[in-house]
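Exercise 7. Given the encoded structure of a 214-residue chain, write a plausible sequence.
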């Protein structure tokens, strides 16, 4: 009695069955990659171009622990926080000018120093605008908002020449932003008081030239 060789199709089917019976150690498995989000070490927002954190101790009772370098890379476009320009006053008065200014900063809960691991819940934000580069100059405005971490304000104020003896006007004003709230260092950690401050430099642009009538 003679036997005929198996067909190619039957040979491939038999090979598949044998491969399925191999021990698990010989089987190749694709690696499973899982990613978890931890808000306590998550990426912090970059500060606006014209702002810097105030030096000093920010978080009561929380020792500095640097966030991983990878999460400090800015993912959002870096904007400016302030804008200001001299506006025309009619009738013109020698030794006096009018300045229109605004400030706008969002996500203050994520404007936190990268030296600290934790999350920040903003309770209130105070923004003081000074008619000069330091807090020694008169205030243009002083506002406090509650239960928000986005701040926006626009205003127009007058300034008399001679507030700075070395110049007619101060063309650099200071905007000090102080966020007060609660800080939690990690999962299950107690909430502690936190005060995070930043100083923003507001450069005042000169008045736009008048439009020439045709």
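Solution.
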């Amino acid at each position: 009695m003679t036997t005929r060789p198996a067909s190619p199709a039957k040979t491939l089917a038999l090979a598949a069955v044998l491969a399925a019976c191999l021990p698990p150690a010989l089987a190749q498995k694709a690696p499973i990659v899982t990613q978890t989000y931890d808000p306590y070490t998550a990426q912090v927002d970059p500060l606006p171009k014209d702002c810097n954190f105030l030096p000093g101790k920010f978080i009561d009772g929380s020792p500095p622990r640097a966030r991983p370098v990878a999460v400090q890379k800015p993912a959002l476009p870096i904007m400016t926080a302030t804008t200001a320009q001299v506006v025309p006053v009619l009738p013109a008065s020698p030794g006096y000018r009018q300045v229109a200014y605004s400030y706008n900063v969002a996500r203050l809960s994520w404007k936190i120093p990268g030296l600290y691991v934790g999350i920040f819940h903003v309770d209130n934000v105070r923004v003081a605008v000074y008619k000069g580069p330091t807090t020694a100059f008169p205030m243009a405005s002083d506002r406090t908002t509650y239960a928000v971490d986005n701040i926006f304000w626009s205003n127009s104020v007058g300034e008399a020449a001679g507030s700075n003896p070395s110049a007619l006007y101060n063309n650099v004003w200071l905007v000090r932003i102080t966020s007060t709230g609660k800080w939690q260092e990690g999962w299950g950690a107690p909430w502690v008081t936190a005060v995070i401050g930043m100083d923003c430099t507001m450069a005042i642009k000169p008045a736009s030239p008048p439009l020439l009538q045709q």
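Remark. The mean pLDDT is 79. Students should compare their own answers with the one above.
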